[in-house]
Amino acid sequence: MECQTLNLNPQFLYTQNISLQPKNLKLLKTTSLSSSNNPNDQQLVSTATINQTQIPKTQAYNVKFKTLGACKLGISRYPDFDYNADGGAGSGKATEVSDGQVSIEFDVKQLYIPPLSTATTKFLGLPLPPFLKIDIVPGSFRGAINQESGKVDLKFSAKFCFSVGSLYKAQPLLVETVLTSEESKGKMRGGRGERLDKDGKCRLVGVATVEPINDVFMDTFLSLPAECLANLNAVISFSSTEIE
Q1: Can you spell out the DSSP letters for 82-147?
Q2: Dihedral (Cα; 244, 237, 183, 119), 10-degree rounding
Q3: Which UniProt keywords apply (predicted)?
Q4: What are phi and psi of 150, to 5 degrees?
Q5: Angle at 87 between CA 197 and CA 183, to 5 degrees
């Protein structure tokens, strides 16, 4: 009768009854290192563990941004405008960079912020004249949000296009600031925001310096260069998907 040799190596017996699933790799590596004195065996198991963990999954999010009423905008020495930004909206993508911290990029082509007009804006309690309008054309909107603390920091740039009917159109005013849920403070203007609550509501503030635009009327009227302040009520919401 032919004799067969039974391999009683503990590592061999162990691996016959367990699949190399990621959740079992740590246990497999520990068992093999303690039960085998062969350096080659240890190297093979270690390599298998590394290969399994080199394909991490990234948490990606769809993010939506909406502006609400009871906002304020101010520039130079003038009192703040009461601004109803209800109806503004945008969407973008966010990627988790650490626990709770997400990096956000909004699609500015799809981002709409209501213009300052007689329907949306009051100055000293009175609506703007019907012929006066300031369109807001976003240039970039990106930054970071901590979903655990609710802290928001979003870099925002836009062109503010001032017009008086068809009679006058000024060169765009370029505004660049960080809209934050924390404190934003310049030399003359400042404000403090509010962090995201459980419903995604927040208040974002940002101070920026507006440079002269080589337009005698606007430069003089606004005393450019001058600081401006944005104070916005907004809602930021997330829906998550998982990507490789």
Answers
A1: EE--TT-EEEEEEEEEETTEEEEEE-GGG-B-PPBSTTTEEETTEEPPTTEEEEEEEEEEEEEEET
A2: 140
A3: ATP-binding, Hydrolase, Nucleotide-binding, Protease
A4: 85, 5
A5: 40
What does the pLDDT read at residue 56? 43
Structural contact between residues 145 and 94, judged by C-beta atoms closer than 8 angstroms: yes
Using alpha carbons, select from 130, 146, 117, 136 the residue that is nearest to residue 230. 136
63-76 per-position pLDDT tens digit? 999 999 999 999 99
| pTM for this prediction | 0.74
The strand pairing partners of 63, in sequence order, are 92, 238
Task: Retrieve residue 210's tokens.
Answer: 């507006």
Q: What pLDDT digit, counting tens, does each position of 4-45 carry?
A: 444 444 444 334 444 444 444 343 344 444 444 555 555 544
Select from 229, 235, 239, 150 the least CA-distant residue to 184.
229
- B/e letters for 202-227, b = 16+ CB within 10 Å, e = fewer, are bbbbbbbebebbebeebbeebebebb
pLDDT at 49 over 90: no
Q: How far is CA 161 from the centre of its chain?
A: 25
